């Protein structure tokens, strides 16, 4: 069977793509990056303003699985387009091309409460699909956990690595569902003989508090128990607002104002839906017992919260260096240039050019779409500073507080940032 998976590079989508490939299906993985192996298509749902946008991508397709989703509106991401209007045009294209089987991922609880644009747009997308003459299936998963991690599941791993477990106020119960059980549900409904026009909640067999899930992950990573610290409301609100600000720079932190509104209602549902289909989901402890944490999981958890700190430090380092060179450090820079034999206008222009380059690099590192280029530029200019400094003022190597010795740990930090840049 030829199957299109929209959102094929996400946590759920990539697992589905891999599973279907392994089962011998022809898979068309659609994502904004377009990088997910053979058969990958680059699509931007925000541009899917009519069914005709999807038609070229659906040639010969017999079934569609839609896993696309975003947490909240940010530059280049629209919940209305990704969850409703753009996807409604996908459903219309399927109807036009007579692609009967459509499996659509929604979110648990949207039929009961819609406190944010995320859940409201998800529900609107569900209704758009229900109106179509298709053999549709709507899957509403709880929080999904597997070997891979992204979003909320990645955040939980990062918190598990801390010496104490911070718990946000007003968090609801979680009925964690395993990624492997989600994939099995999709495989079940891709069978042409499977029932259609179904809404199925995908949940695990047990309910946990947020802190209990983090504690289970901590035990899985073989770290000693840690006590919970319940954060006050003002602290958590500040963190959510900070997450919103960071999202405007193109990053996707899981802690944003939408999460604050959604987390209160929790993620619980009806286990009978899965049992009725003959799907008996594993519990979280069963999964952890069968899938022992490797050094990769432990490294990821330990680095998760270190990563943003690295990028903040590097961005501020370059921006502050640029401002200092144009301000308090002007005389020092001009003095070094003079000591190396470069004086007057040439020295001033060199110092100004270096300061402006530092500012541009700092801003580029802070902005997610240009972060990789900023890091490469920082490494190049750091080596350039070292070479020029050695030629003009070689005595700087003998200064224990001088720039020549400081530059090497900064270069190493840039390589570390490049290593952990990708989220998935």
TrEMBL record:
Residues 7-144 form the NAD(P)-binding domain. GO terms for molecular function: protein-containing complex binding. The chain crosses the membrane at residues 304-326, 346-367, 374-397, 403-421. Keywords: Membrane, Transmembrane, Transmembrane helix. It comes from the Bacteria. Pfam families: DoxX_3, NAD_binding_10. InterPro entries: ComplexI_NDUFA9_subunit, DoxX-like, NAD(P)-bd_dom, NAD(P)-bd_dom_sf. The keyword S-adenosyl-L-methionine does not apply. The keyword Membrane applies. SUPFAM superfamilies: NAD(P)-binding Rossmann-fold domains. This is SDR family oxidoreductase. It comes from Bradyrhizobium australiense. The lineage of its organism: Bacteria, Pseudomonadati, Pseudomonadota, Alphaproteobacteria, Hyphomicrobiales.
């Amino acid at each position: 069977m030829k199957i299109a998976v929209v959102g094929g590079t996400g946590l759920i989508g990539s697992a589905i793509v891999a599973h279907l490939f392994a089962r011998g299906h022809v898979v068309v993985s659609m994502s904004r990056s377009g990088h997910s192996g053979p058969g990958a298509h680059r699509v931007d749902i925000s541009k899917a303003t009519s069914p005709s946008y999807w038609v070229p991508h659906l040639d010969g397709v017999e079934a569609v699985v839609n896993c696309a989703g975003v947490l909240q509106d940010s530059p280049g991401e629209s919940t209305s387009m990704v969850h409703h209007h753009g996807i409604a045009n996908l459903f219309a294209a399927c109807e036009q091309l007579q692609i009967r089987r459509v499996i659509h991922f929604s979110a648990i609880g949207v039929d009961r409460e819609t406190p944010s644009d995320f859940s409201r747009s998800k529900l609107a997308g569900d209704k758009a699909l229900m109106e179509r003459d298709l053999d549709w299936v709507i899957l509403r998963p709880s929080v999904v956990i597997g070997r891979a991690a992204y979003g909320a599941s990645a955040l939980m791993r990062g918190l598990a690595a801390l010496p104490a477990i911070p718990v946000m106020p007003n968090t609801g119960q979680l009925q964690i569902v395993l990624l492997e059980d989600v994939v099995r549900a999709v495989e079940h409904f891709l069978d042409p003989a499977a029932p259609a026009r179904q809404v199925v909640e995908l949940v695990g067999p047990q309910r946990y508090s947020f802190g209990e899930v983090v504690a289970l992950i901590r035990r899985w990573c073989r770290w000693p128990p840690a006590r919970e610290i319940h954060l006050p409301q003002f602290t958590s609100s500040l963190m959510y607002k900070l997450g919103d600000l960071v999202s405007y720079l193109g990053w996707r932190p899981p802690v944003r104002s939408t999460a604050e509104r959604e987390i209160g209602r929790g993620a619980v549902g009806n286990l009978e839906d899965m049992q009725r289909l003959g799907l008996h989901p594993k519990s979280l402890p069963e999964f952890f017992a069968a899938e022992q944490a490797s050094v990769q999981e432990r490294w990821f958890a330990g680095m998760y919260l270190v990563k943003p700190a690295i990028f903040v430090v590097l961005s501020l380092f370059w921006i502050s260096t640029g401002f200092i060179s144009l301000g308090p450090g002007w005389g020092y820079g001009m003095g070094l240039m003079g000591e190396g034999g470069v004086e007057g206008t040439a020295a001033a222009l060199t110092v100004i050019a270096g300061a402006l380059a530092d500012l541009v690099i700092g801003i580029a590192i802070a902005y997610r779409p240009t972060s990789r280029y900023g890091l490469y530029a920082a490494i190049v200019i750091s080596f350039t500073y070292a070479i020029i400094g050695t030629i003009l003022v070689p005595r700087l190597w003998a200064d224990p507080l001088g720039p020549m010795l400081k530059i090497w740990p900064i270069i190493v930090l840039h390589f570390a940032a490049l290593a952990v840049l990708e989220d998935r």
